[in-house]
Structures are given as C-alpha cells and as structure tokens.
C-alpha cells in the first residue's frame, strides 16, 4: 500500500496523458478535480492487485464523452460520486475499491477524485493499459465480465442506469444519453471482484504513469531529451518528429473524431498522418501504415515531453510521435476483434510496430 | 369494478384510435398484444378512480417511439412487463394498479396487456385524455409529479432507468436511448398514488373509448353515419371531409413527423392541411388555422368511421377530420406551456374550435 497525495498528481497526470494516446480527456482538468478532492478528504491509499481480497467489490469510475467538450464545459465535480452511488444502489452493495477504467488523461484523475470523495482506496492498474474510445473496449469484456449495470451522471443532476444485453449495447445506449447530457458525463460500470483483477486489469499502471511523468520531468529539468526518457520507461519506438500542419476535427456521435497531418522537421523527411476517435487509431507515414490500434500511438511535445491530446493538437505544434506495444491481450484475435483497426472501419490488420 | 375481456378489445381499440388524434401507435398491433395476454391470463379488472385506495401505487405502462416503426417492427411482447419490473426494482415496491399514460392507439392496449401479465387491475382513466408525443406532456407534470424514475425496455432485453432533474429532461434522455433501441420501447414511469388520481388523470377514458368504438360500430352496422355517431359521443365538430392528396413523412428524432394535405370531396370546398408529430398538432383550412393542439384533431375514415393514424395516412383515403375540445386543464397557461402550439414551434396561440 502506498498513497497518492497532491504531490504525486503532476507526474501522474503527465504520464497518464502520454499513456492516453491522445485521448482520455485533458489531464489538466482531471488534475484540478483530483487535487481538490485530496485537499478536502486527504491522500488516497493505493493497493497492488495482489493486495486486494478476492471477494472485494472494485468499481471503475470514469468520464465518458468527447474530450473537445471537456475543454469548454467543466464538470461540476459531483458527477463521479453520484454515478458511484447510483451504481451501488442497483448493485445492492457498496464498492470496496475504486480503479481507473483507463490509464489516460482525465480518466486517470477522476478515479482518484472519486476515491477521495468516497473514502475508498484505489487499485493500482486499469482495464485497458491505455485509453480507448468505447466502453466495451476493456479487458473485462475479454473474460466475460459485463459492463452493466452502468450508471451515468451528468453535471445537472440527471442519472441513468443501463442494463444491456452486451457490453457493446451498453456503450451504444450510454453514448446516446451522454450526447444529450452534454457530451461529458461520469460513469460507474464494469464491476470487478478481487479475484478477477489479474485477468481484468493491466497491473501497476498508476505507478507506471507516475514513473513516466517523473522521468519526463527530470529529463527536462536536466536538459536531457524528455522523449528519450519516455521511451526509456515505456520501451516504445520513435515514429516521427514533425510539425502539425493540419487538423480536421469534428465532435460527432459523442466522440472527437478527426485527422492530423504532420510535416517533417529536424532532419526527418515526409509526412505523418494520424487518425483519431478520441484516441489515436492509425499512423500513416507517407501514406503507409506504420502503427495501428491497439498499440499506443502517443504524441508528445518535442521540447517539453508533455502529452499532446487530440483535442489540443493545433497548427504549428512541434511534436514527436511514439509507438508503444499494447498489453499482449489486445493482440489476441479476441482483443483485435474488440479494438483492432477493422473494428474502427479500417481495411487493414494490426501490424507490429517497426523495430526501435 | 368491471372487467375488460377479449370481447371489449375491438370497440376499445377503435375508440382509442380515434381519441389518439392520429398518434399513440397502431391500435391493431396493440390489440393483438392485449388479446394474447388476456387469453393467457384472463380478463383484467378495471376500477374507477374513486374505487382506488389513496395509498395505492399506480404505474402507467406505455410504448414510446415512432408509430411508423411499429408498423414494421413488432414488439416481442415481453417489454412492458420487463419495464414494469425494472421500475418496481428501483421504487422498492410493487405496483398495485396499471393505468394508460395516454388513451390512444397502442398505448390504450399495452396497459391492458401489462395488467393481464402482471395480474394487476387497471384504473379507468389516462394521464392526457388523448395522446401526446412527448413523455412530459401529462397532467401529473402540471401537479408536480415527477415522471422519473422511468424504466425503458426494448425487444432485445436491454433496460434503462432514467432519473432526471425534470420531466422534460427525462423525455430527452429516454428519447435518445429509445432511438438506439430501435425506436420502439416500453416504458413504466410517472408513478401516481391513489390520492393523486383525481388531479393526475382524465377519468373514465377507457369507458369512453369503448363507448365511442361501440357507437361507431353500431352506426356502421345500421347504415347510419359513423362519423356523426362519433361526434355524438365526443361532442366535437366536423372540420373537413376530403381525400388525402399528399403526405410528407419522415421518421426523425424518435418521432414520426410530417404533413398531410386533403382536398375537398362531397360538396366540401378548399383544402385542409394537417401537421403532425406522432399526433396531429395543427389543422389549416385554406391556409387558416382552424384547430390546434391541445384540442383533439381526429381523422376518421369517412365511410367506416375507423380511426386513421398518422402513419397510415396515404393518398386516396377518404377521411373526415373532426375537432374535439381537450380536457380543460390543458388550456390553462400551464397546460398550454406544456403542450400548446408554441411549444411545438408554431407562432400562434391556441384557439378554440369553431362552433359545431
């Protein structure tokens, strides 16, 4: 057991922003929520997966919506606890632990805020090992865990409980309601028992995010290359260094969808195109695919190593794109059916990242 | 107390089809559902409002969606009981009575089916005295009764429970989910206590619908004018007799919206235009408004007196349009704010129907 206090939030948010592969929502907003909750309620205990009793009730709490909306429409700060309580009411029992559904952006911070507010400990891990845009794209789906009952709460006080025939149906119904609720809601769903955590979570990703964020900060402070520091922690590969020259973006169907084009700088040649649906899905170098979901395609500010989310990409930014292998469970046939490129409508298979 | 058995269904469905002002969904489909439920579970007891104990729990059960969809996508027949049980689960108590939310089309039949399946009695009345397209357009809204918790169930087995900050928000969230669920779902919502029925219901409308349906049938059998027979029961006014010459229709936003144009026959002159959103909202004769929501604008087959729903209007049908004054609570300022022409975007006030 360790604790997450206010001092850990900056590194954690930075690292989770990188692991969020462009999505998961702006970590800055999440950091404000988590900081305020810790300031009021104190630091949050964090347990390793192995420390959680097998009969514990672990509830992922997260935000759903389009990150573009979160930039302008701040949460009320009450949604996550409202969603948790609505879920507990239909479950008929209380959560014993909170866990991030994804280790990305605001969704690494909302669980901290929820845990602080509820007076519950966190589990060190998440259900993706990255961020994905849709609710059914979690390891628990692969082991047959249902994501319903799913409770949604908005900033106005509306709540919704979905019971669906499949995890994909839950996403579909929740997304439609989420759009009406203003495209930014809190969710509590995909309840796990303690003995399901090994198969249902990627372990120790809160620690990984903090380590990653710290490595980037220390490299920057020591005038070293922060992107190299990130790669040192993550073990991925540098795909492209360039300048953002074009971003198409639309907020549609409850997602931020679009495409960004980077042109070469610093001795690099050619162009890189990034397709995204909240998260980056595909990277094409001079028209050829070099990285695909479910591998992590992460965009960092070249000089500072700060994560660049899809909604904050804009003309002129100097960025470095790195590819990081996903958790191996995502490249099984079942994992690829859930979150591979074909699910998102691309006529290509997942291909391994180029060698470093 | 009386009973509704299979023998009453034809007259009831016919009368409710007329009272549904073009909406409420095809009564034929509803009749099949109610007939099957009564055949299996026996006739349904019906109580007058005055016979219901003040502490009773009365649950309206209904269908939500676009009637155009109901024509092609039949209910599974399990949705209404699933919605009722989902609502009871969050209420923490069982319904003692079922009541129609609206006396119109399929929504006068679904409560009969639900009551038979649940083994519960019906209350003779409904929450509108007609049909309206949106869930908040009920008399309980006018007396401060919330329509949430609202439970929705679809034919696939998905359920949803909405808790909203207003009755209008509940409509908005439920409608979005309803569209995803295939635009045809069952709802249980707007729970009433026995002592709220006098203010929350229009009394005895199941009896009215049956009387109306019988009067039309008997007139037809006796070679009398069935439309005159309907007016004899309802006390309305004949607005136009004509032929349907044009129907624009689109199923959008979870509703069947459109406009129908009638040209004169049988010594009538000019044209009549009808605007609808599931139900008829406005009638214009030669461009001049002659009837508006919340008054009932009902379309009957001129020869048979059978109700013509908005989704079954088609070129060549000979129809008579009648106007029937609504329950007086709908023409109060609060009633008009909820369901008057301005709510639906028309730049006109409600005007009383022309004299008979």
UniProtKB/TrEMBL annotation, chains A, B:
GO terms for molecular function: hydrolase activity. It comes from the Bacteria. Residues 8-163 form the S-Me-THD N-terminal domain. Gene3D superfamilies: CV3147-like, CV3147-like domain. Signal peptide: none annotated. Residues 166-353 form the S-Me-THD-like C-terminal domain. InterPro entries: Oxoprolinase-like, S-Me-THD-like_C, S-Me-THD_C_sf, S-Me-THD_N, S-Me-THD_N_sf. This is DUF917 domain-containing protein. It comes from Bailinhaonella thermotolerans.
């Amino acid at each position: 057991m360790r604790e997450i206090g206010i001092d850990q939030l900056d590194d954690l948010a930075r690292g989770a922003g990188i692991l969020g592969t462009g999505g998961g929502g702006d970590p800055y907003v999440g950091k404000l929520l988590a900081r305020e909750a810790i300031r009021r309620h104190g630091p949050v205990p964090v347990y390793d997966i192995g420390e959680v009793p097998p009969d514990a009730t672990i509830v992922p709490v997260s935000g759903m919506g389009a990150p573009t909306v979160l930039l302008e429409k701040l949460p009320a700060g009450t949604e996550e606890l409202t969603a948790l309580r609505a879920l507990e009411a239909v479950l008929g029992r209380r959560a014993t632990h909170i866990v991030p559904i994804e280790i990305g952006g605001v969704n690494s911070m909302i669980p901290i805020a929820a845990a602080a507010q509820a007076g519950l400990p966190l589990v060190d891990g998440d259900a993706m090992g990255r961020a994905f845009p849709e609710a059914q794209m979690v390891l628990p789906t692969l082991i047959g865990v249902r994501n319903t009952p799913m409770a949604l709460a908005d900033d106005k006080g509306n709540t919704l409980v979905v019971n669906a025939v499949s995890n994909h149906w839950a996403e579909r119904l929740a997304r439609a309601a989420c759009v009406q609720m203003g495209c930014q809601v809190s969710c509590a769903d995909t309840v796990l028992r303690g003995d399901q955590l090994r198969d249902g979570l990627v372990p120790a990703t809160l620690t990984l995010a903090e380590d990653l964020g710290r490595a980037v900060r220390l490299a920057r402070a020591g005038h070293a290359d922060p992107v190299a520091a990130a790669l040192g922690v993550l073990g991925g590969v540098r795909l492209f260094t360039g300048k953002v020259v074009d971003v198409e973006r639309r907020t549609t169907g409850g997602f931020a969808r679009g495409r960004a084009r980077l042109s070469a700088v610093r001795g690099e040649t050619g162009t890189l195109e990034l397709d995204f649906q909240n998260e980056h899905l595909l990277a094409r170098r001079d028209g050829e695919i070099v990285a695909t979901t479910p591998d992590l395609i992460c965009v960092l500010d070249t000089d500072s190593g700060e994560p660049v989310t899809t909604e904050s990409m804009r003309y002129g930014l100097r960025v470095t794109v790195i590819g990081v292998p996903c958790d191996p469970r995502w490249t099984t046939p079942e994992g690829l059916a859930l979150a591979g490129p074909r699910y998102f409508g691309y006529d290509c298979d997942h291909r391994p990242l180029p060698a470093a």
